[in-house]
Amino acid sequence: FPLIASVDDFVRARQVVRDCIDGLRAEGLDHHDHPSVGMMVELPSVVESMAEFAAEADFFAIGTNDFVQYMLGVDRSNKRVADYYRPEHPSVLRSLERVVRVAGDHRKAISLCGEMGHDAVMIPFLLGIGIRRLSIDPQFMPAVHQRIAGLSIDRCRDHARSLTAAGSIGGVQKILGEF
């Protein structure tokens, strides 16, 4: 489900799926009785409630384009403010790390989609925080594959720790430039 803001939203949406399954069963129609039900992580409100979401959802997908936009309150398509859209903002990086860590702690699958997933500069960070599934446009697959093949997971983890410890955009950019 996209744009989930609260656990209550997710529980209600999942109940709709369960009601539909009950309806199909009652009509005697073939159906999948226990589909996995997950959610997009796109809103900042999810970050502080990830443990509660992880108790309810079967899997997660981080939509980085919307996540960054809503995290920073920036319309990336508005040329007057688009420069404030910063995936390398410390709050964005720390929030992504937390979301991935909590999902992992609860043994929930997590994937990532959006421009960050094919950004050669951000790929080491994503691997370092534990992202192992990327949803990217096929045109980017060769470059992403090549970038990943040249990386060490241990080095990526160290890199991610350095990035999440940085307290400013400038500090993050310096670390990104040195990697």
Explain this structure:
With 179 residues, the protein is α/β, with parallel strands linked by helices. 51% of the residues lie in helices and 9% in strands. It contains eight helices and four strands, in the order αβαβααβαβααα. It has helices at residues 7-26, 50-56, 64-72, 90-105, 123-129, 141-149, 153-165, 169-178; strands at residues 38-41, 59-63, 109-113, 134-135. It has a four-stranded parallel sheet. α5 (123-129) links the parallel β3 (109-113) and β4 (134-135). α4 (90-105) crosses α7, α5 (123-129) packs across α7 (153-165) and α7 (153-165) packs antiparallel against α8. The longest helix is centred in the first third of the chain and has 20 residues, at 7-26. The protein is globular. The two termini are 35 Å apart.
Short description:
By secondary structure, this protein is an alpha/beta fold. The chain is 51% helix and 9% strand.
What's the helix and strand layout?
Blueprint: H1 7-26, E1 38-41, H2 50-56, E2 59-63, H3 64-72, H4 90-105, E3 109-113, H5 123-129, E4 134-135, H6 141-149, H7 153-165, H8 169-178
Parallel strand pairs: 1-2, 2-3, 3-4
Helix pairs in contact: 4-7, 5-7, 7-8
